[in-house]
Amino acid sequence: MLTEKLAPEKLDPRVRRTRSLLEQAFFDLVQEKGFQDVTVQDITERAGVNRATFYAHFPDKYALLDHNIRQGFLKEIDKRMLNACHLTLDNLRNLIIAVCEFTRSANGHCKPAQGQFESLVETQVKAVLHELMLKWLEQVPLSVPAETAATAASWAIYGLALQWSHAKQPRPVEAYAAEVLPLIASNLNLSSTGV
Amino acid sequence: MLTEKLAPEKLDPRVRRTRSLLEQAFFDLVQEKGFQDVTVQDITERAGVNRATFYAHFPDKYALLDHNIRQGFLKEIDKRMLNACHLTLDNLRNLIIAVCEFTRSANGHCKPAQGQFESLVETQVKAVLHELMLKWLEQVPLSVPAETAATAASWAIYGLALQWSHAKQPRPVEAYAAEVLPLIASNLNLSSTGV
DNA sequence: GGGCTTTTGTTGCCTAAGCAACACTTCCGG
DNA sequence: CCGGAAGTGTTGCTTAGGCAACAAAAGCCC
After folding, report:
1. Measured between alpha carbons, how far is B101 from B67 in angstroms, rounded to an integer?
2. Domains of chain A, first to last
């Protein structure tokens, strides 16, 4: 599970519970009232958690939003990659598909909201991608620093996903992923001739 | 809410959460494996609660079973009595119906189990009835001690409910309740002529 | 029976969560 | 413009829960 590998794996059951209560309450409330109208008090009250406890976990509701976006993206990845522990063409293609799907649903689902929302998604998605790329690349010989390759790849992937999701009539994800795959693969010194 | 009036009303959210997690896990596990095959470890593991915490709340799994039965009965009562705070013919009739329904579902639902199960239900139901009768009677003048009247009424009600639930083709509850109502009412010095 | 594993209760120490009170900002209505 | 109401962060102290280790029962298999 990637959700548990990029995020800490084993943690105090109390913490796990509290987080999940806060996440759930927050998610529901945003559906009902919209992000701006949700207060920290609302969240803690709904979650049945003390307000002080909220601040022990998140600086403010924006951080919780970031966190939820990140978790959502991680879940999207987990759905498609059971053995995401190293760099292969298959994993890379599935990753691209995941980013496309998540970007579309995240930005589409909250259309009423704002463009500022998109930038939050962008930040989280690129951050996760960057971490994941670094993990993948540490086992592979490269002609440039891993940092560099990771940055290039994560930006490229997100950019392509965004472009795809903004198309009037988006093409099938699979086709798009197959098309851009060689491009990304080459960034990572990964041959794609043998697909 | 009666559930919160006979049981303590305000209590530490952590306690509330833990109890509810244990109750739910226990209930599910009993459905799956049967009461005897469920261990305390199973319950706490499923609930995501420490085993030591279990013992801070219940002496053993039998106590948890008692507790669940009691809660189930209280919920059954709550469904039918919105203003159950004092003794009226209406409340009394609804109470009788609740006892009938609960007894039937409890003993019917777990038919595969045992006769010993029935006696657990009996204990809890009579206990709750007794407490409730005392609450009702403390505002009413009586020719006998309230304890006495409460005992008679709670035994009588449960006995009648059990008899009803054991009938081959049970009659409609409402009819049965209406029939036995005067009998119980008279135990409580409550005239029933004016229904 | 004797050895093995599993489950049961129990205990002491540590950490997360609850609570109440605080000062501070923001927002509204008179 | 002012004053109250509501939301925000923060803090010290208390309590519930997690953890690990224990001894003791309860099953099981040979």
Report:
1. 19
2. 13-187 (1.10.357.10)
